[in-house]
Fold CatA-like O-acetyltransferase.
Amino acid sequence: MTSKYNHQPIALEGWDREEQFRFFSTFTQPFFNVHTEVDITPLYHYCQRHQLSVFLAYLYVTLEAARSVENFRLRLQNNGVVLYEGLDLSTTILKNNQTIAFVSLPYQETLLEFSSNARQIINEAKESKNLFIGYQGADLLHLTTLPWFKFNGMEHAFSVNPQEAGIPKIAYGRLEVLPDKVTLPLSVALHHALADGYHLHLFLQQMQGYINAFSFVD
């Protein structure tokens, strides 16, 4: 399996998650899925002021949060576990012919850099005939957005087999824009051999922190 970022193997014997890993690795369907929502009000208004895509902005803070939580960088490999030092993302986009493509968007340090780079990649992808565009490896997040209707959760399509890398799968629904609050519906699926609900809590906590930071940015 190819990878962009360096990774190191986790010694399973004596690992804090050894028993959980061995238990959940035997499951036919080892992912657990949680449906929630995130208050993105500061990020939304920042994007409005600076004419930035809210879609790209919430992808950016998602990636930042996932990179900061170690369990979101764990992957299954060769019957073991590896930890990647970084992550990019792969998201679905709707092409001009109304079919989807899986588009890889590399990490950038700032929202402005990420938005500029991603916008160019997505515009080109909309004209492509390919299903997969850009780098596709284990050191990604898998993201998708359903912006057309009210969203209370989503079960992802995926193949469960020995080659499944345990990549986190995140879906977003239509924004709810109220006079004093903007919320983003969010569904997160994690491989239970690699993460528990507590690690999802850490991810959401980090994501909210990145969002709230835009309250203090002009």
Remarks:
- The longest strand covers residues 182-191.
